[in-house]
Design goal:
The protein is of the alpha+beta class and 175 residues long. It is built from 1 helix and 12 strands, in the order E-E-E-E-H-E-E-E-E-E-E-E-E. The structure holds zinc ion.
Length: 175
């Protein structure tokens, strides 16, 4: 890429704007003087590196601030979340193997909450909902920052279930 650069005749001081071709002699159209245009000063690679690093760090700090803001907003809107920790299986007296969903409800806020109902949704390989069942975790109150574990055996057989999701049943009443 050729950038234009300025050069000045060192005899008659006429200014020229020329293509950036270093170490080529230039002849002045006014006075006939010739001179060699020096290679333009390059920015130090270290300065370029440090400037890039500063820009990167500023971007990271900004991203972290945005993420923290998002987390605060999410906690305000959804102080309680449910998560699955482990899925195991159990075979009953009826010789049917079922999934056991072990998870917890987490109170991310600094207030006490009643434990809501938990809904476990099972999906087939085509993404269709096979089953959805609601239950109440054993704990009834969640202190600030604490969690309530649950272990729930699905009533449907494990066959055909490809994916299991858990969500809070916020609409259910909290008996
Ligand atoms: Zn000249």
């Amino acid at each position: 890429m050729n950038r234009r650069m300025k050069t000045v005749c060192n005899f008659c001081k006429t200014e020229y704007s020329i293509d950036n071709v270093p170490n080529m002699p230039v002849r002045c159209a006014v006075c006939g003087n010739t001179w060699v245009v020096p290679r333009p000063a390059r920015r130090s690679p270290w300065l370029v590196f440090i400037a890039a690093l500063c820009a990167l760090m500023a971007a990271v700090v900004f991203a972290v601030a945005v993420i923290a803001q998002n987390q605060i907003t999410q906690i305000r809107e959804n102080p309680l979340i449910a998560q699955i920790d482990e899925i195991t299986t159990v075979t009953g007296d009826d010789d049917v193997t079922r999934f056991v969903v072990n998870g917890r409800v987490i109170n991310r806020s600094d207030q006490i909450y009643g434990v809501p109902g938990v809904k476990i949704i099972s999906y087939g390989d085509d993404g269709a909902v096979i089953d959805a069942q609601r239950f109440m975790p054993p704990a009834t109150l969640l202190d600030a920052g604490s969690s309530a574990e649950f272990s729930h055996i699905l009533s449907v057989p494990m066959a055909g279930i490809e994916k299991i999701a858990v969500e809070l049943d916020q609409n259910g009443d909290n008996k």
